Amino acid sequence: MSADPKFTKIRSELDLRRSRHLYRSTRISDSPQHPHMHIDGKPLLAFCSNDYLGLANHPAVIQAFQQAANIYGVGSGAAHLVNGHSRPHQQLEEALAAFTGRERALLFSTGYMANLGVVNALLSGRNDVVYADRLNHASLVDAGLLSGAKLIRYPHNDTTSLGKRLLAQADNANTQLILTDGVFSMDGDVAPLAKLAVMARHHDAWLMVDDAHGFGVLGNTGAGLVEAQGLTPTDVPILMATLGKALGTAGAFIAGSHDLIEYLIQTARTFIYTTAQPPAIAAATLASLQLVQTESWRREQLLALIQQFRQGATQLGLPLMASDTAIQPILVGSSGQALAISRQLEERGLLVTAIRPPTVPDGTARLRVTLSAAHTATDVEQLLTALAQIWT
Ligand code: PMP
């Protein structure tokens, strides 16, 4: 072991994390995303994927990926604005714009990059203000911090507090942006978009919704939370969604007006200065978008499983959170206890990750159960049986 004090310092930080049950490590999977996985050499029934519709491993999606790889190769080779923008990218952008009812859409290589890119393109200085829900995803928090604008975090889904903060800034704010998750990634509840849209309009602020966990899943056609809550593109002028969750592939997009997208193409640094996602990913996403639109039974199956899980867990007296979505966390509190329950589940062949600070606030460690249309009622029954044994 190195005696270099720099390393001594990072080793003691690692030790501290271990002692607080906050240490994290990766697991090795030898199987595709599917409820029945092979992880670290063990068969496990997984309840922690964001593959909400079971499309990550769909034969039509795989085939589209393979065919495009045969034509376009593996890598895109360059950024979109150089020569990395292929026909599948263009087709996907057009399909995403049409599906979300917007004039244009713009692909980003990841959701993290999309959030950094938009916020930093729109806000430039100290007189600009970002209002962010306290439980927003880390990428939205980082986007606000990096922008150099004044970052004001408001209590979770508390539009009254947000209103007070907007009023307090009214006289000296330049560009203002209200930023919120659509479905909150670690809680599963949803943002009150109608109220936020009214406030944004009233204060002449942008409203941007990160619908990473709603896109594909919520709304009659799967267009996401904006559709589910009966809002229009004018209400939510900046929509962000990721493609690595319900769509089962990778990457993200921003959908909005022609002017917004043109502005992002000129100014969003995480669009301009990064390699385009592989064309085969775009082709695979086009195939999965088609399945989202044609196979509504996947959303129905998911909804039935959510209801089954909530009913069973309520009967067991488990501390569920107020969520109707595929994210069904069980609140535990202490990180050590959440880890211990996760381990006990694993001994019974089930994989549910313990989510701990700083991903969630201190004292709110939880088991983040996620459901997928690829699960069966028997899978959910198996999870409930194991939870019943552990909880008693
Ligand atoms: N926003 C939210 C709400 C997310 O949950 C995630 C991913 N966990 C992201 C953004 C980042 O997306 P990506 O994984 O594509 O970088």
From TrEMBL:
PROSITE patterns in the record: AA_TRANSFER_CLASS_2
InterPro entries referenced in this protein's UniProt entry, alphabetically: Aminotrans_II_pyridoxalP_BS, Aminotransferase_I/II_large, AON_synthase_class-II, AONS_Archaea/Proteobacteria, AONS_Proteobacteria, PyrdxlP-dep_Trfase, PyrdxlP-dep_Trfase_major, PyrdxlP-dep_Trfase_small
Positions contributing to substrate binding: R24, H137, T359
Alphabetized CDD domains for the sequence: KBL_like
Keywords for this protein: Biotin biosynthesis, Pyridoxal phosphate, Transferase
Molecular function as annotated in GO: 8-amino-7-oxononanoate synthase activity; pyridoxal phosphate binding
GO BP annotations listed: biotin biosynthetic process
Pfam families linked to this entry: Aminotran_1_2
Cofactor dependency: pyridoxal 5'-phosphate
Modified residues (N6-(pyridoxal phosphate)lysine): K245
Subunit and partners: Homodimer.
Job of this protein: Catalyzes the decarboxylative condensation of pimeloyl-[acyl-carrier protein] and L-alanine to produce 8-amino-7-oxononanoate (AON), [acyl-carrier protein], and carbon dioxide.
Protein family: Belongs to the class-II pyridoxal-phosphate-dependent aminotransferase family. BioF subfamily.
Name of the protein in its database record: 8-amino-7-oxononanoate synthase
Gene name for this UniProt entry: bioF
